[in-house]
Design brief:
Layout (H helix, E strand, L loop, with lengths): L4 E5 L7 H7 L5 E5 L2 H10 L4 E4 L13 E2 L1 H6 L4 E5 L2 E5 L2 H11 L8 E5 L3 H12 L4 E5 L1 H6 L10 E4 L24 E4 L8 H8 L4 E2 L1 H17 L6 H15 L1 E5 L6 H12 L2 E4 H9 L3 H7 L2 H15 L5 E4 L8 H8 L2 E7 L16 H18 L2 E4 L5 H15 L1
Parallel strand pairs: 1-2, 1-3, 4-6, 7-8, 7-9, 9-10, 10-11, 12-14, 12-15, 13-14, 15-16
Antiparallel strand pairs: 3-5, 5-6
Helix pairs in contact: 4-5, 4-8, 8-9, 10-16, 11-13, 12-13, 13-14
């Protein structure tokens, strides 16, 4: 039997909608993947109460609606269907969701030049949101224009919004545009929510531009849809924030960085066990793949060979979700490692001073003087890499573990 509530689309493997609506209290909400022919039969039967609509059906469902809400009519796209007394009403809550995400990131539209990447249903909602917030100018670029890569005519854009699926898992290594083109950019919005941090957003962070991913938008629009399903007055913003945090933490990896010998593996294993997360150690995976120890790799193949293998491991392990990951001390030497780990990672620096490091089996740290030199070289990289820092100086294992658990609890 078809659920009374759910989400329609194809495919839906990446969708968080079912989880979000169940967290909103709707246990009858399910995913429903339908072909276009199956969709037609489903809509004509009308044996449901409310469904959200996602790619590729936001416009397809419109002719089946008896009525369109004001937002859906204005935007020209439907992402929410309500069936009452055999009548089908199409609504659009993406407008609310995008506005909520922009406000949360303190991104202002008023008087700004807006560039919207993509021309689908979400693009229409972005356009309506920008218009309602008194944007000075709005330019929409479709896929063909984006593919040409010529953004010279819109390089003065101040807010850039990506509504395309570029950068979405599993093709998470790509970005729709190089943000360095936009010298006066004051805000970046990405409708993609899987991964949490796309390459597009990572570049915005590196450039110091206010930004938001698609998860806040997704949760907020779902909360508004829930109001429409059950005739509630307005979304509960505290509930929205709790769901954003819960989902974000659930898929985020806890990534430990720091000098070799700082206790990343020991702390990571303990915290993984205590929190029910899986655990991965990039150094251990490297040695398993190479079938030799790290000192052997350095001695026989050199550091460059080790770093290449390490980067391959980091890229693969970054696709994991909800794990604790201990990384090698020199992982921060490659900015691409940072970008890979940040996609779904909360990065924590275990900052243990050189005099307290365990040096045995460390090919790059033959003595304390070398360890101190290496620490001073890498310290700025650890600092820029990390979301959190734990001062491990003079701290025992249990205290470091407790501090890491507090960080995880704070994220929750």
């Amino acid at each position: 039997m078809t659920a009374k509530y759910g989400v329609l689309g194809m495919p839906l493997g990446h969708s968080y909608s079912e989880c979000i609506h169940q967290l909103l209290g709707n246990d009858d909400y399910k995913k429903l993947e339908l072909s276009e022919a199956e969709l037609e039969r489903f809509l004509k039967k009308r044996e449901f109460s409310g469904y959200n609509v996602t790619i590729p059906y936001k416009k397809t469902v419109m002719p089946y609606c008896d009525n369109l809400g004001e937002g859906a009519a204005k935007i020209g796209s439907v992402n929410t269907l309500i069936c009452r007394d055999g009548k089908l009403t199409g609504e659009n809550t993406d407008f609310y969701g995008l506005g909520y995400a922009a406000d949360r990131a303190d991104i202002k539209f008023e008087g700004k030049k807006i560039l919207i990447l993509g021309a689908g249903g979400t693009s229409l909602a972005a356009r309506a949101a920008a218009q309602s917030r008194n944007a000075a100018a709005i330019t929409v670029m479709g896929h063909a224009e984006i593919a040409k890569g010529d953004f010279s005519a819109v390089s003065d854009s101040e807010i850039v919004i990506n509504t395309t699926p570029v950068g979405m898992w599993p093709n998470s290594g790509s970005s729709p545009v190089d943000l360095s083109v936009f010298k006066n950019c004051k805000g970046v919005i990405d409708a993609v929510y899987n991964p949490l941090y796309t390459r597009f957003l990572i570049q915005a962070r590196e450039l110091g531009i206010p930004h938001t991913g698609g998860l806040p938008m997704l949760v907020a629009q779902a909360a508004m849809a829930d109001c429409l399903f059950f005739d509630k007055s307005e979304p509960n913003k505290d509930q929205i924030e709790k769901i954003i945090k819960k989902l974000s933490l659930g898929v985020s990896n806890i990534v430990l960085i720091g000098m070799a010998g700082s206790g990343k593996t020991t702390v990571g294993e303990a915290v993984a066990k205590m929190t029910g997360r899986s655990f991965a150690d990039t150094d251990k995976i490297v040695t398993e793949l190479a079938e030799m120890s790290i000192p052997q790799i350095f001695a026989e193949q050199g550091e460059d060979a080790f770093r290449k293998l390490e980067a391959d491991v980091v890229k693969e392990i970054s696709r994991t979700k909800g794990a604790v990951i201990a990384t090698g001390g020199g992982v921060v030497k490659n900015i691409e490692n940072c970008r890979e780990l940040r996609q779904n990672g909360i990065i924590v620096w275990l900052d243990r001073p050189p005099e307290a490091l365990e040096l045995s089996g460390r090919p790059l740290m033959q003595n304390r003087a070398v360890a101190e030199k290496l620490y001073n070289e890498r310290k700025p990289l650890y600092k820029s890499f990390a979301d959190y820092r734990i001062d491990c100086g003079g701290k025992g294992l249990s205290e470091v573990i407790s501090k890491l658990l507090l960080i995880i609890d704070d994220e929750r």
